[in-house]
Structures are given as structure tokens and as C-alpha cells.
User: What shape does this take?
Amino acid sequence: MKTTSRFNTAIQKLYTAFHDNSLHPECCKSCAVGNILDRTDSWKYLSDSHGTTKLNYLGQVHQNLGRRFNGYTPLELLQIEAEFLKACGYTVPLHHKNRKPKSPLSKDNLFKGLSAVVSLLCLFDGIPDVMDCSRLFQYEFHGSL
Assistant: This one.
């Protein structure tokens, strides 16, 4: 399967973060997007709340100028982070009154978040979802659960 450079780079960074225990959903440097952006937190200035998909003024300016951060637009970055947090069990945006998982750093929890992110990255790049195991079993889902 042919993938993009940004996809390969992002997956490699997320894989490394997961296995060296440097993935933390509540930290802007150690979350999914923080790791994709080389463990920096500069992306947090694109919105007013961690976990929102609404760009603030600065984020909108960067989006309108076509700015990309390690290949991803500001809006894509916010979508990646929101998907990661939701799949980890958070209610977004992050707020001390909103629901959060009992064990945010458990490997099971982080794996769920990363699985959702990988699926989203595949969607962004127009490649088959590598997290979809139905192909492995030659099964096509046709209903609701």
C-alpha cells in the first residue's frame, strides 16, 4: 500500500511515543499532536481550548494562509487531537468539570486513542484504514451494532 510521507512520519512518532511511555493526553507536548509536532506545544495557540476543533483567530490566519505543520493544516491538527482525546475517554474540550478516564495513561486507553488517530490519518490521506481488520478476515460490515 502506498502511503504519504506525512503519514509515515506521524505514525513513526506516535509508535515511538507509545512504546517509550512519552504519550500523555493532557499534556500539549506529549499528546498525539504534540508528538507529531516533535514534542512541541506551539500548536496549542491555534485554538482557545485543548480538544476543540474550532480555530481561534491565529489558527484561522494560519489556515487561510495555507500553513502546514509537519504536513498538517491547523484544522487537521485540531481534529487529530480531538479524535485522540475522545477515543481515550475524555469529553472535549478538556476542562476540569468534563469527564475523563479513570486511568488516562493505561496502555489500553492510549491504544484506543492512537487507533482512532491512525484511522483519521488514513482518511486524511485517502488511503485504506490500516486499523480496519475486516480485510484480514475478508469480512465487510453491513449493519449496526
Notes: The mean pLDDT is 92. Residues 5-125 form one domain. The CA atoms of residues 64 and 85 lie 26 Å apart. The radius of gyration is 15 Å.
